[in-house]
Amino acid sequence: SRTELDGKAALIGFSGAPWTLMGYMVQGEGAKSTAAVKAKGFMYQFPEASHEFMSTITDAVVHYLVEQ
């Protein structure tokens, strides 16, 4: 953890991108191609909800990475 490193080394955090995480949430599995058919369909069918969903996921990812 950052505390254990005591500034002696950099700590690199990792998280999936918001689009990737949304794909897993909407599809229930990873996509075998970049098409992400179900997630893309969700975005076209529910544009306002998708925007809010992506904003929420983005905020959570930022918070998670800062806390890493």
Verbal overview:
- The structure is a single chain.
- The protein is mainly alpha-helical and 68 residues long.
- Helices cover 65% and strands 0% of the residues.
- It has 4 helices and no strands.
- Helix 2 crosses helix 3, helix 2 (18-27) packs across helix 4 (47-67) and helix 3 crosses helix 4.
- 4% of the residues are buried.
- The mean pLDDT is 84.
Describe the structure concisely for a colleague:
With 68 residues, the chain is mainly α.
Main pleated-sheet profile: none
Task: Tell me, rounded to a whole number, the average pLDDT.
Answer: 84
> SSE string, helix = H, strand = E?
HHHH
Strand elements, count:
0
Strand content: under 5%
The general outline is elongated
Number of helices: 4
Distance between the termini: 8 Å
- CA gyration radius, whole angstroms: 16 Å
The parts where pLDDT drops under 50 for at least 5 residues are: none
Roughly what percent helix?
Answer: 55-70%
SS-based class? mainly alpha
Write the topology of this structure.
Blueprint: H1 2-5, H2 18-27, H3 37-45, H4 47-67
Helix pairs in contact: 2-3, 2-4, 3-4
Attribute tags:
68 residues; mainly alpha; 65% helix
